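Example (one chain per record):
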Amino acid sequence: MNKILFIVMLFTLSHSLYAVDKNPIEFENPEQEQRYKMLIDELRCVVCQNQSVGDSNAELAQDIRELVRNQIRAGESNQQITDFMVERYGEFVLYNPPLNTKNYVLWYGPLALLLLAFIMLVYFIRRHAKTTATPPSLTDEERLKINEVLKK
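Predicted structure:
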């Protein structure tokens, strides 16, 4: 009985949940629908933070999908739509924010941390090599003492 319950739970938890569009509106042509899908996958849900607007079930994501849909139907370009979203929600709404002075840390931070980690690694390896240097070679007298101790 426990095995069956475990399998049922595993099956139900393994399926991903997809966002359901509460107000589906048909587009005039397939190109608009394709643009819509591309845009909602490029915009990040501000509430969920690691989901695209297309994958999120949050109410804000539903509102953003509605805004994008209405702007596409109004004939606005992709750039105009993304500019509007950035103006309204900030650059965080973009999965690939542009490179500018506001977000240098976002783009170059990981590289700087990697470089710092490499420098620290080299420093600690050199420090360890200095503190564990090999002793000078043994004299003949020391070798005889060691051999005597090992023979006993």
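Caption: The chain has a mean pLDDT of 83.
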